[in-house]
Amino acid sequence: MFSEIIKTGGVLVDLSFRKQTLRICLGFATLFSCLMIMHAAFAEEATTLFEERERANNIFDEFTVGVYWPWERLPKVAETAGIDKWDYTAKAFRMFKDEFNIDTFWPVNIGLEDLERNLRIADEIGVNFLGQLSPFVTTRIAGKVTAEEISDIAAASVNIIKDLPGLSAYVLIDEPQKHEFPIMKLMQKEIAIVDPAHPSLIVTQPRNTEVVIRKTQFPISVVDVYPFFGPDSPNGPNTVRDSQRYYYNVTHQVANLATEYNKKAWIMPQVFSEIWGPWYYDSNMNVVIEPGSYYNWRMPTIAEVRWQIWQGVAAGMKGIIFYVTFPTPNNRVPGESFKGTTGDPSWPKVHKELNTGAGSGLLNIDGSPTPQLLAAGEEFGKLKVQKDLLGRLKLLGYPLVFADDPFNVNCFEDPLNGRRYAVVVNNNTEEVVTSNLYVFGNEEVTDLVMNKRLAKSEYQGGLKQVQLTLQPGEGTILELGFLKNITCIFRDEFEFAHVLIGKTENIEIVNEPYEFSNIRMYGLKANSNTAGLLSYNVKKLFFREQAIESMLKDNKFLLIIKSSEIIPQERIELLKDDGTITKASMVQRQEVFGDFLQVYELSDPQFIDTINLNLLADVRLWDVTLVINKQ
Fold it and tell me: Among 66, 359, 396, 536, which residue has the least CB neighbours within 10 Å?
């Protein structure tokens, strides 16, 4: 290219340079415009998702109670009951709300036209109905879908129902797998752009829930946990204890993780049975399994239904959506030929006819309530009185109450006023149990369910003993007062490979081997166990002496250790400043589904320079907490 040079006012001007400069300026201007458009798009997405989260907090501030509503099953139940399906829909909404304290409905397999009519009926009766957008389900069945198609679906579907007052939120695809999460996030984003007033929800299997909490913007994490597998089933826990432990672990892990990410967690527990093979309903509408069938899931007992509710509350769940409302359709008669699958040939089969004595959902095939629904409604009635409180409570992170077997307990704080609470659950689903609780402080302990104060007596370590009686599988909520004299000065969680140190001004903690330091510190040694996970072989806990001196007088110090195995009392040694060693005094020990909680009193007036745990490498430590109980 040759330069064009002209003379203007005695100045030589290179036209090609001017043109290139102009092109560069135009290029930068275009790039800047693109960046501004991208920024605006990102800001719009961030804003809509933020608004969606805020809306979720507003709609579901209270403790939420609901049921899973498979629409395709309702017509058969209505027909059996001899009622038009729409009349039955209105009747069912009223029944669940008025008789069973349930006011939220999670629909699936419903077209937009029927969804719109359900929303109008729900609004008339005053219940919450979620909106499943069936075109999204169709895209999943069809397979690959483009972003443009999702945007079009969202715009077309959401605009039909977004302004209906009965709508509370959108539900997307059930149990998406990890490879589908990008599509879920895109669906959520496109819905939020069209309707930022209503949040989107998905329900996930336990194995995928952590990813949803950590990697997506869904404001509420809903996990389905179906713990009660059939006898001898190889596909899941099949004893009462194993089933309980599975449910307990999932609910607590999900609620804790959701709290860490400032999200809410809901649980979708089990009220159903599932048989692969021939079965039928008897004259009492109970499931009868015929020989040769595989019994995959069994119906939980009445006490197990109560237990699932209370264990969810104790974990810190903010909502319970039971699966499933309507029973499994089945017109089969005894002895009729069967052409379906009975599962893997190696799976155990039923050898003789088995009457389970239960239906297959919250409702019977004629629409009448099963005993499981009656029990759930009774417990929900107790929780309804405290639904505002339960919606507010935050996990406390350290125990203020200890329990004897078979109770377990979790503690909370009300951010509105600072009061502390505990939820206690009876893990015995066969018997009424009277057991002991051990509580901090001198304030009154009130059972909010029974609306009565509990008598306290003196116990070790500055704790008070309280007796509590609970029905099989039931629980209660205890108000503990403010407990301002109780201070957690140290807490460490060992569940993950990294060390989490709580904020404190009184303790200096240095994470390095003791032998390489001349200061008092916190020493850890990591060991690899047989499962390939890191477990911590804690050799010593060190505290700066001057940080403790101001707290010595008239105080009780409790060391709380949660581990995978019992730590013998003689292994907990107190090394005093004068070099002498004394043993810690065990106050209380409890086993909860394989984990051990041990409480030691550190009450020597000289206090300690070092707590020497001397743990074995194969003992996995979950928590170490040091609490001051000011007398």
Answer: 396
Integer Cα distance of 585 and 460 in angstroms: 9
Report the alpha-carbon distance of residue 624 to residue 601 in Å, rounded.
Answer: 13
Rounded Cα distance between 362 and 299, Å, is 10
Q: Supply the angle between the helices 302-315 and 371-384 in degrees, to the nearest 10.
A: 30
Nearest to 211 by CA among 176, 169, 163, 173: 176
**Cβ of 480: how many Cβ atoms within 10 Å?**
22
Helix (H) or strand (E) holding 131: strand 128-132
Question: Which range, 1-5, 419-423, 438-442, 596-600, has the best average confidence (pLDDT)?
Answer: 419-423
| Helix and strand counts by DSSP (H, E) for the chain | 13, 38
Quick: pLDDT tens for 505-548.
333 333 333 332 222 223 333 333 323 222 333 334 444 333 44
Express each pLDDT in 588-613 by its tens digit: 889 998 888 888 876 554 444 444 44
Could you give the CA distance from residue 302 to residue 241 in angstroms, rounded to a whole number? 16
Q: Which amino acid is at 480?
A: L
The reported pLDDT for the residue numbered 261 is 94
Which amino acid, one-letter code, is at 335? Answer: G
Positive or negative torsion for Cα 130, 134, 139, 142: positive
HSE, side-chain direction, 13 A CA sphere, residue 122: 24
Q: Are 90 and 126 in contact (CB under 8 A)?
A: no
> Is 90 exceeded by the pLDDT of residue 118?
yes
d(CA 9, CA 325) in angstroms, rounded, equals: 89
- Predicted confidence (pLDDT) per residue in 268-281, tens digit: 999 999 999 999 99
Structure tokens at 294: 């595989």
- Torsion-angle region of 594 (φ positive above 0: left; ψ -120 to 50: alpha; else: beta): left
Question: pLDDT category, 559, cuts 50, 70, 90?
Answer: confident
Nearest to 158 by CA among 184, 189, 123, 185: 189
Q: Percent of the chain having pLDDT more than 90?
A: 59
CA distances from 308 to 213, 313, 375, 555, 566 (A): 22, 9, 11, 39, 27
Measured distance CA(435)–CA(447) in Å, rounded: 14
The whole-angstrom separation of Cα 293 and Cα 233 is: 12
With 80 as the cut, is the pLDDT of residue 573 above it? no
Angle between the N-to-C axes of helices 181-194 and 147-161, in degrees from 0 to 180, rounded to the nearest 10: 50
Mean pLDDT of 336-358: 95
Say which amino acid occupies 142: A
Report whether 186 contacts 150 (CB < 8 A). Answer: yes
Q: Which tokens in the block code for residue 146?
A: 């483009």
CB contact at 8 A, 53 and 217 = yes
The rounded distance, in Å, linking the Cα atoms of 320 and 601 is: 38
**Do you know the residue count of the chain?**
631
Report the alpha-carbon angle 418-421-422, nearest 5.
155
**Is residue 581 packed enough to be buried (19+ CB in 10 Å), middle (13-18) or exposed (0-12)?**
exposed
Asked if 269 and 309 count as a contact pair (C-beta separation under 8 A), the reply is yes
Please give the single-letter amino acid code of residue 181.
F
